Amino acid sequence: MSSNINLIDSFQEFKEFKNIDRPTVITVLEEVFRSMIRKRFGTDENVDVIVNPDNGDLEIWRTRVVMEDGFSEDDDLEIELSDVHQYDPDLEVGDEYIEQITLESFGRRAILAARQTLVSKILELEKDEVFKKYKDREGELVIGEVYQIWKKEILVLDEDGNELILPKTEQIPADYFKKGDSIRAVVLKVDMMNSNPKIIISRTAPEFLQRLFELEVPEIFDGLITIKKIVREPGERAKVAVESYDDRIDPVGACVGMKGSRIHGIVRELRNENIDVINYTSNNTLYITRALSPARISSIKIDDDNKTAAVYLKPDQVSLAIGRGGHNIKLAGKLTGYEIDVYRENDEVEEDVDIEEFADEIDSWIIDELKRVGLDTAKSVLALTEAELVRRTDLEEDTIQEILRILESEFE
């Protein structure tokens, strides 16, 4: 009906871009019109509102009982005989008079108000739908497009145009995005803030690494391999404990892939984060040994009551066990649940770092020169004076000073 065009078409246009199911649409439409009817007639008890589910067309039918002249007490529910005969002369007292109500009869102001109510309700419903959708997807992988970049967060839009927030704290330190870039992350948490859904996504959460493994390793997705635990220092290092219930499947080999083919894509996504995949075991001694990979352990003393472990290694393995910045031993502790202390085999506490671990701060040719004269760890370099280093190597004095500054900062 032509009188419905402005109201219904505006809704249909709005509906095309919103993910609201058909029954909900009809309920919203009906409630808006019933509200109009109540304002005009005082009641909607005797009114039928029919919404066409296919195109949104509307019909409103009002039923009143025919009464003897002078006996009508409520014009909204009853109509006198003389009045009804103007429309249908065949009706008698006690019959029901059914008439169609057009939107035009409500007046332009009422129609505009109804349209405003309609848009408001749809927006409210849309926010609720987005909240429910993403609340159910916490921990799941999402893909979006970078829309706006601020100092403390990035605004990402999903395929439906919903806004996702990636805070700086949930970005990998080496992350760099431009507007229009595609971005992958997991849904970290969803809250309602001032009636608006706030969806926080993360690239540093362990769940992000887990979802990437599920994408790259079919055996994990199919449930043949289980990820028991993931710990991360985002952008630096991660340790993933995996287990297979099928003896024919090597869980570590399956995760890494032929020549690292499966794990390579994950490492690239995580900005070259080192990923250690280890076989899970309930044997704590063996589990800690594997967790400290790539270091080779000589012996371990475990105190299960206090959840501590004393690990003894050969001098050349100490720096590997600790790792650059202490990341390796810290992650091994988080993975196993034990506080791990590293000792040299002669029981002296040793804290040293392989000189190769400084490759991102010290040029490779300088590292090669230090190794040429037998200085392959940070402590072995720091044990010599500046003058001795200048005399033993072919390095300039200012280069030696810079090397010492870098190495000393590691142990501060």
From TrEMBL:
HAMAP family attached to this UniProt entry: NusA_B
One Pfam family cited in the UniProt record for this chain: KH_NusA_2nd
Q: Which domain of life is it from?
A: Bacteria
What is known about its subunit structure? Monomer. Binds directly to the core enzyme of the DNA-dependent RNA polymerase and to nascent RNA.
Annotated S1 motif domain ranges read 139-204
Q: Can you tell me which family this protein belongs to?
A: Belongs to the NusA family.
* Keyword Cytoplasm recorded: yes
Purpose: Participates in both transcription termination and antitermination.
> Subcellular localization, per the record?
Cytoplasm
Sorted alphabetically, the keyword list is: Cytoplasm, RNA-binding, Transcription, Transcription antitermination, Transcription regulation, Transcription termination
SUPFAM superfamilies reported for this sequence: Nucleic acid-binding proteins, Prokaryotic type KH domain (KH-domain type II), Transcription factor NusA, N-terminal domain
**Protein name, UniProt field:** Transcription termination/antitermination protein NusA
